[in-house]
Specification:
Elements: H1 2-9, E1 12-15, H2 49-52, E2 53-54, E3 57-58, H3 69-77, E4 89-92, H4 102-119, H5 126-136
């Protein structure tokens, strides 16, 4: 079940409203969870996007560790707004309607399992895979 959760997590991203989205651990930039992009760091800090993005400016000093230049570049390219009148919403990336359906989930998991059968025969570091994903797609 945990493997399935990890698979499905990659298919969801968060559209910011109030910004109560976890900066490091939620996919809110469409590039995946940012903690995967931090090399040689263990991140214990659970901070929300709205705590780091205040009045239209990023306050990097609040983050421990500070994000590397690559992460800052990803965030700079991604339009971020905080609106206290709107809830954060999830976007199901495999559906044109951006809404979850059982059939789209089943099809996505089925496709990933076909890939993972081949993939399981190869060893790789998951962090490297996350770094290469934007380049390869």
């Amino acid at each position: 079940m945990c493997k399935l959760r990890d698979t499905v997590d990659d298919l969801i991203w968060w559209r910011t409203g109030k910004g109560n989205i976890r900066f490091w651990f939620d996919n809110w930039t469409t590039q995946g969870q940012l903690y995967f992009l931090m090399e040689d760091f263990t991140i214990y800090q659970d901070v929300n996007v709205n705590e780091v993005f205040k009045k239209g400016v990023w306050d990097w000093a609040i983050l421990i560790p500070h994000p590397n230049d690559y992460i800052k570049e990803i965030i700079a390219r991604f339009p971020t707004t905080i609106n206290q009148n709107k809830e954060d919403i999830t976007v199901w990336t495999v559906s044109e309607l951006e809404a979850f359906t059982v059939s789209s989930a089943r099809e996505s998991v089925r496709q990933m399992r076909n890939i993972s059968q081949f993939d399981s025969r190869l060893w790789y570091d998951p962090k490297i895979g996350k770094l290469l994903a934007p380049i390869l797609h």
